[in-house]
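::Encoded backbone::
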Amino acid sequence: MSGEASQLSRRRVEYLISIFRHSKKRGYARQYELIRDLGVSKPTASLMVRKLRDEGLLEIRGGKVMLNRKGEKTIQEILWKHGVIESALVKLGLSREGACELAWKIIQELSNEMVKQIWEKLGLPDRCPCGYPFPKLGENVDVMSYEACLTFRRRRALDRLRRP
């Protein structure tokens, strides 16, 4: 149970989450959406999308970027790890926003075995502290029925709106 997500860089995880979020709406993402979400140039986005495709996580058809089965399984692992780690960090006293942000930064640093031990010690939670359900690792689920918890990003956006 080594896990695909543990082998991915933080930036690759960000791309996969962006593709996942856009795919929920219509089954695919477009590169311009990734460029906007991640603040990268078109050549940078194209290169990373090709790398993720070559790693077997995506398919590209007619400008449409889609997660394949392996990509969906990786998203399932990412969502599970994030939910567990965020739950543990909140239990240790971090704010929900702080825990959410830190969890996204460190998920690829922890093996599935480590996260499984944390998950069991927490009593097998199935929702992050922000209220988002997350899939259990290894279960056969429709990952598109889940949401990625991005509470810390929403908080930053609200803070920017409140500034004079």
About this structure: The first strand starts at residue 58 and ends at 61. Residues 72-158 form a domain with the Arc Repressor Mutant, subunit A fold (CATH 1.10.10.10).
